[in-house]
Amino acid sequence: MKKVGMPSEAIAGMRKAPAWAGMPALAPTLAYDDVVMGDGSVPVKAAEAVRIPTLVLAGGNSPAFMHEAADAVSEALPSAQRITLQDQSHDADAEALAPLLLRFFKEEG
User: Fold this and answer.
1) How much is the pLDDT for 81?
2) Neighbours of 90 (CB within 10 A)
C-alpha cells in the first residue's frame, strides 16, 4: 500500500477495520499486480489500439494519481468517455455508479 502512496496512518487505520481480516489472503496476488503494472505508467500504445467505446471513471475523492491515470487512459483511448464521480472514492457506491453504467451501455449498445 505504501507503493501506491498510502500514508502509514491510513494503513494503520485499515488494519483496525473489520475488512482487514480478509486482506492478507489477497496479498499473494499483489506480486502479479506489480508485474502487470510495471513502472506504473499507463500503457498508452496498448490503449491506443482499443477501438471499442470505453467509459473511464474516477472518484472525486480519490487520490490525485488515480485521476492522473484516468486522464491518461481516457486521452489514449480513441473512443473514451471520462467521468468523475463526485463525492466518491475508488470504491464507488453502486447507487452512484449504476446510472452512469446504464446510460453508457444504452448509448453504446
Assistant:
1) 95
2) 13
CA dist 88 and 61 (Å) reads: 5
Report pLDDT digits (tens) over 9-22: 888 988 899 988 98
Distance of CA 105 to the CA centre of its chain: 19
Q: Which among 56, 58, 101, 60 has a CA at the least distance from the CA of 79?
A: 56
Distance CA 104, CA 109 (A): 8
| Single-letter amino acid code for the residue at 14 | M
The string over 24-61, giving b where at least 16 C-beta atoms fall within 10 Å of a residue's C-beta and e elsewhere, is: eeeeeeeeeeeeeeeeeebeeeebeeeeeebbbbbbee
Residues belonging to the chain:
109
Q: What is the rounded distance in angstroms from the CA atom of residue 51 to the CA atom of residue 69? A: 19
